[in-house]
Amino acid sequence: MDDIEKKVIDLVAEVLVDVNKEHIKLDSKIVEDLGAESLDIYDMIALLEDEFGMEISDEDVEKIRTVQDVADFIKASQK
Amino acid sequence: MRRRVAVTGMGLVTCLGTGVEVNWTRLIEGISGIRPITLFDSKRCQTKIAGEVPTDFDPWQYVPAKELRRLDRHQQIGLVAACQAVDNAGFQTPPDNPYRYAVVIGSGIGGLSTIEAGYEVLREKGPKRMPPMVIPMAVVNLLPGLVAMRFGFKGPNFGIVNACASSASAIGEAYRLVASGSADVAITGGAEAVVGEFAISAFNALRALSTRNDQPSKASRPFDRDRDGFVLAEGAGMLTLEEFDHARKRGAVVHAEIVGYGATSDAYHIVMPDPEGSGAFHAMNLAIQDAGINLEQVDYINAHGTSTDLNDKTETFAIKRSFGPVAYKLSISSTKSMTGHALGAAGAIEAIYTTLALERGIIPPTVNLDSPDPECDLNYTPNVSVERRLEYAISNSFAFGGQNVSLLFRRCC
How far apart are CA B297 and CA B373, in angstroms? Predict the structure, then answer.
């Protein structure tokens, strides 16, 4: 796992504090597996944007399902 | 027909501590909760002292961590006090008849600290970075909503904004809901947590706060000649009000009864009280009339007693107008001398102290009353608590804006 992936898991865990961090894997589906609701997603977007200094549009969010998708999106936006 | 209204639950989070018993112990020992500010760097402010909720405040036992980080501090403190008030009342939740359970909670400025922090993000990082929880953390009606969600209470639910009378108004309106039959149970009170650079400097700009920074525990000195303003504090007080027979049928402990509520407006000035004390005088008289008792039956007044020049003089004058010669036989005290002034939460915190005074026959003192102001010549229970068997007691709350609320409590048999 690279630094970005680790950081994404940290931020997802920060929002979903009632989910055991060990259960947050790269292939975890954020809504279906981890139980995130809409406010959790908005909260995560704000933290990710702040941490990585980028913007995630609502269209981008539609394409993201797993923790890995988030990390890949961040890596792509940093190129 | 008007129904009787019992106080069957209480919860407190103040600068004296978390929980009713720790508050009462410190209160009757005359211990001040005022200390140098730690919640932010106060070096730019004229006032550097406040009544902060101590760090042993432990919301995690009541509030899940995910929820907690999405709550403004006033909501955290208020939710903990509400959980205590429901635990203390001892009924099962969610109830079978949830539409009979109301929640009415006051706050003066709600999530002001959240607004302050959100505005800094807006200025520094721009609109796209605005945290998504600013609105629900800022608005005053979210706390009554959160209490309803926690316990499944689906009856009347609203927030009351009435500055320093907010939670006294909330208790008065909740009392009416139960007395009139609109609800059988009401969770009511208030919460405030605005100790930050914004609120301190704003109240400093009004010249309202004490600047006795080198003597924090001496700074709040209601009715004393050397008082120099109020001390801002955080806190929450929550009460469970319950229709009397509803409480009796389930064998609940009744701490006291609410028997009177008086609410008026000065219609006089933005921040100054009417020097004739007419609004305050009528609020006390209305509460006494509402209870159907005589002036002589009132034994104790928990005064608004903010430690500002104008409040303490005017309140004293209003008490004399209401009670005439009987005023000198009353026990009076200002517990703000120890807790500071928790603005919209003050009325509920003091309603609980008043209930405890009735229940336990002890009047908490007004500390720091060393040289009484010549215009303040009543019995303010200076410095040491006093044992006195009480039948009826009033709790006063007055607001910037001219709102006045008097709540009248009776000792339960």
Answer: 27
User: Pick from A17, A49, A50: which is nearest to B66 by CB?
Assistant: A17
Q: Can you list the alpha helix ranges (DSSP code H) found in B277-332?
A: 278-291, 309-323
For the ranges A16-25, B78-87, B293-302, B367-376, the lowest mean pLDDT is seen at A16-25
Nearest alpha carbon to residue B12 among B3, B22, B26: B22
Instruction: Say if B291 falls within a structural domain.
Output: yes
For residues B384 and B30, the answer to whether their CB atoms sit within 8 Å is yes
Asked whether the predicted pLDDT for residue B413 surpasses 80, the reply is: no
Q: Give yes or no for a contact between B256 and B355, defined as CB atoms under 8 angstroms apart.
A: yes
Chain B residues close to A39, C-beta within 8 Å = 70, 132-133
Domains of chain A: 3-78 (1.10.1200.10)
Q: Is B177 exposed, middle or buried (0-12, 13-18, 19+ CB in 10 A)?
A: buried
Same domain as B273, residue B164: no
| Record: contact B66-A15, CB cut-off 8 A | yes
ipTM above 0.85, yes or no: no
Q: From B59, B403, B5, B31, select the one nearest B236 (Cα to Cα).
A: B59
User: Residue B132, preceding bond cis, omega within 30 degrees?
Assistant: no
Q: How far apart are CA B359 and CA B253, in angstroms?
A: 11
Q: Give the range of the structural domain holding residue B199, as residue numbers without chain letter.
A: 5-249
β-strands B256-265, B17-18 pairing: unpaired
Task: Classify the C-alpha dihedral B349-B351-B352-B356 as positive or negative.
Answer: positive
> Hey, what are B337's tokens?
């001398």
